[in-house]
Amino acid sequence: MQCRSDVFSFGVILWELMTESIPWNHLNAMQVVGVVGFMDQRLDIPQGIDPKIAAIISDCWASDPLQRPSFQDLVGRLSEIMRAMAPPPSGRRRLKQSPRMSLSDS
């Protein structure tokens, strides 16, 4: 069984990637433990973040560790988002062929 605190940490890393910010940069380590662990506070998720990504971050930070998604679930959700962002397949491209010389051309 995976450690659900790793899922929480993954949510923080995803938040960092999406916001390009340092979490709790105004707090020392003990203050972070107090704010998150005892006061059950979370980082603010900015409005401009894709709602599906914001939902993943929020789910990773569920107060009850058993309510946090598994990494298998996270991989599936992130894969869906990546597929939706990928350009549609355009089929195989054909390379432009240069005119071929035949033996009769020489």
TrEMBL record:
It comes from the Eukaryota. The keyword Kinase applies. Pfam families: PK_Tyr_Ser-Thr. PROSITE patterns: PROTEIN_KINASE_DOM (PS50011). The keyword Transmembrane does not apply. Transmembrane segments: none annotated. InterPro entries: Kinase-like_dom_sf, Prot_kinase_dom, Ser-Thr/Tyr_kinase_cat_dom, Ser/Thr_Kinases-Pseudokinases. Residues 1-82 form the Protein kinase domain. Residues 83-106 are annotated as: Disordered. Keywords: Kinase, Transferase. SUPFAM superfamilies: Protein kinase-like (PK-like). One of its GO terms (molecular function) is protein serine/threonine kinase activity. Signal peptide: none annotated. This is Serine/threonine-protein kinase CTR1.
